[in-house]
Amino acid sequence: SYVLTQPPSVSVAPGLTARISCGGNNIESRSVHWYQQKPGQAPMLVVCDDIDRPSGIPERFSGSNSENTATLTISGVEAGDEADYYCQVWDSSTNHWVFGGGTKLTVL
Amino acid sequence: QVQLVESGGGVVQPGRSLRLSCAASGFNFTSHGMHWVRQAPGKGLEWVSVISFDGSEKDYADSVKGRFIISRDISRNTLYVQMDSLRIEDTAVYYCARESIHGSGSDYMDVWGKGTTVIVSS
Q1: Is the CB of residue B57 less than 8 Å away from at least one CB of chain A?
Q2: B36, B95 Cβ separation under 8 angstroms
């Protein structure tokens, strides 16, 4: 089965840029989606299809996908961005949806 | 507005059954595949099951295959999951989620419910 690997944690000072990686074999051939989950809340889609932002998501959130790594980039990080972030793809070989293990973003 | 509301969670003994429901409103229920995703205490998200927009296709994570059954009732705009032979490791918050619209070529989950908690304990 397809595996997505994320760093457990990322820390960044306010106003700087956070980059959260999502590794997978030839992940660039798949569409990668990113979800934000704050404590006690349901996940929320922040980036879809590698680079698109759903309505209402600030431009500070962006995505990229190349070779074996997809990346969620948050520019001008704010305290309110502190959350867990998950990447997700669809595995066509099994028709299963796959989540990465999640990355806890800490704003220093 | 677009909304998903889960219900049916509770405390259940190992080996027993439980049925979760997810009431959908504010959108055309028959235009979207629907998912169940769970999150064990302190853990990450785990995809559980999917049902296609028309109910013709269903799939399950290996961890629940043969024990869980997903279904949908278009007359009630409701998604279900029947969970049998529950195990302690099934303890989690269960979320239902809407998949991007059928025919879009995308496979993300764009609307989520708040979740319902299932505790399997003796």
Answers
A1: yes
A2: yes
